Amino acid sequence: MELFYSVSEKRSLDDTQQTSLYSDGGACAVSSKSVVAFTRMTTRQDSFRHRIPVCTVCVADLNSPNEPHVIMESVSKVIFLTFSSDGSQLLVVLSMGRVHLFTKGAGLHQWTSSHTCDWDGEDILHINFFHGGIRACVQSGDVNVHASYTEKFIAQPHKPTLVDHGQCAMNGFFAVSASGLLLVCVLTHEGAIFTEKKIVLGNTRDNFSVATAALAPTGHIHVATWKPEMIKCWRAELKMLDQAKGSKGDITVTIQAAQSFCPALSNTTWHTSTKSEGLVQVTCLRYTELEDPTSLLVALTVEKQVKASPSQQSSTPPTLGAMSHLVRRYQLQDQQRPLLKPFKPMADTVGIATKEWFCMGEWASSSPIVTLSTATRHLLPGSAAAHLPFIITAATADAYICAINRDNMQQLSSHNLLNVRGGNEDAPVSKRVASERQVVSLTHTWSGLSLLALDSMGSLHFITLIRPADIGPQWAISLILLLEFALVSGSDWWDLLVSTPHSSILMLTDKLSDTFQQHSTPITQHLHIRFLIMKTSMLRLLGSQQQKAIESRIQAQLTATQQLFRTLRPVTGDVATAERNISVSIQNYLESRASLDILDIEKSLDQLCSSMNVKDCQVDPGQLQNLQPLIQFAADLALFILFMLAQNSKFELARDPKIVQSLRELLFVARLWYRQNKLVLPQMFRKTQSVDVWAQIYKLLTRVAQILPGEPDSTLIDECVLLETQVMCQELPLHVPPRGVLADMASSASTPLQYEFVNGESNNVNTSGAQPRILEGALPPLPLLDPLHYRYIAPQEPKFNCTRCCSVRASWWGDSESVWDHHWASNCICSGHWAQPPTSPPKAA
């Protein structure tokens, strides 16, 4: 366990007032997209000029945690924050039973409250979303690193929590209240409310202090609650009723009692529990995994009574002795119980099989346990070839965070938050703040490798739980499996990169590339863009591999443009099948030898059109107008590569066959569309009007494709030099440096990293204009280039920044109807999130 970075409040006012603001605790949660939601306390002035505390819910990327975006303000206390499995929805639970459901928009700052539940002042103890029925996992047996994805990852059967007519999973969420209610809210597929239900757990309503829930593979909701002296469990089943004619339809909820037990001090099951051991109080309940209702974690506080001597029994009341603080893991197992034992006490008595909770191990603490946390799932529980321990984290009242191995309940490591500096304060203030610091909320990342903690001073602490030295040679295999799992499941790989040593990145990218290239064409086409983005994110962390990172980024952008061009259908109505798709014919033609032998683009087009209907090549003019920036980017990039080839024959981008072939296809398709619509003409700064520059670029790209992987000859270099006399080229800022935590990692900054909320970064947000010029005689690059829409943004124009690189995009194109705009509306090509530039929020006190 190692502290990686901390983000603290900037304390410029009275720290005593700020400490009191966070005395009621807080909440934080991390989504599968590495987005953190957390609470911050501020103050504002009411109509009587009194300062009242206000709780704000903020979201931020884990890579730029000092740039929070406020999505909600409330004078009520925020109790829980919960993300959906894909990170697109967020539940915010306020005191007095009010729940807000937020849905993410295009930008990281765009969260809208799509639904609000007001459950009549109920004190909510636990809340979560329904299970959608999708459960991909890593094979638990022996793992072959070079095996295909279909062999490594399987889809385990898991029934959705609520199934609609037609076997479709319904969206919604459920909550458990302190008064013994199961609260259910079901949403339609369009996001509107379908129904709300309140069901009593048990025969009568009861009072509970803590609760937790798990989603079983059978589709049931398993609930565990603590009522003094007993942990009571239930199983809930949700079903959709048949809709009668003219009725809205409804659901039915069936509650069944499950196995309960008493967590006494010295027993293993509730059958042998005794009250003489002392007072037992459960402070925290949590299922070890979200999808496993058979394993339960219980945090206990035991007050053991001290027996007085016989002479003092009549005059001295019983006194309390030592306090024991324990974390126990209980497992639901089958138990063979004898049948009719009092009537027939024989050794071979017939028995019955029942399920009972057994204590599998415990961990003791000298301080009260504040909260428990685990990862949602144990992804690598398999053999010794690739096994990572499943870690339970416990926060204690003395500001310690302890990592516990679930298998043996032994402590692996610990970290004390009192050693964290409190910003840029004076020494006496820092010492006082540190003594008052306490953990109020813990949450794991989806991989379980890292942990985020929110303390009572409003600071965030990102902690890596597993280091390579703790695992040994198995670390590389485990990390490869997790990276590939992130690739196929859609989860973000940021927390995997921060746990990866720089010395292993190059080896990991080679292993990932070798395995990826062994797959079939449908799989590689489906995951190609995402794989290139992952490769770019890894190579960008190494200073010696920046050129390879540039190549991967350009390949990802060109591949995305290719796939977009290939999905466009002609305006003619007689082409409806893939066999008649024009893109398939173009792709086969450009990969043939006949296409490479013809250098004239017009002759190549005539040869292609002679075997097909020209009407099948016509595309909607409105779509072509939206595709014009992408065609312009392909032409400028091809011109830039050819000019660099003339000045440096060893230029790497000109030696990549995939990039050259992609540019040939894009320019060829654009020229085909140009015959029907003149809007797709790329604009170039020509020195002479008598030369068809478009045709010259295609000719030289074809010449380069003919000789690769060989070296360019002098004739090709002379033709590229001749092209320089015919047209001017624009310098392209190909290298987009990282920012935030990734930038500090690339610069080998010492850990732990220290940040302050909205206080700038160590690197500049936009450094693309400060890059050195590499192309002689080219036009200088303009600042603020939108790398995806290929448009230069005015300085005063509203814009979005990427949270992980220095890319900037215009804020207007995320709402357009273009397919390309929707593809990159939420994420940059580096996998970062688009967000508004950070602004100074209300001060923390």
From TrEMBL:
Residues 114-413 form the Mediator complex subunit Med16 N-terminal domain. The keyword Hydrolase does not apply. GO terms for cellular component: mediator complex. Signal peptide: none annotated. Residues 482-673 form the Mediator of RNA polymerase II transcription subunit 16 central helical bridge domain. One of its GO terms (biological process) is positive regulation of DNA-templated transcription. It comes from the Eukaryota. It is found in: Nucleus. Keywords: Activator, Nucleus, Repeat, Transcription, Transcription regulation, WD repeat. Its main location: nucleus. The keyword Signal does not apply. Component of the Mediator complex, a coactivator involved in the regulated transcription of nearly all RNA polymerase II-dependent genes. Mediator functions as a bridge to convey information from gene-specific regulatory proteins to the basal RNA polymerase II transcription machinery. Mediator is recruited to promoters by direct interactions with regulatory proteins and serves as a scaffold for the assembly of a functional preinitiation complex with RNA polymerase II and the general transcription factors. Component of the Mediator complex. Belongs to the Mediator complex subunit 16 family. This is Mediator of RNA polymerase II transcription subunit 16.
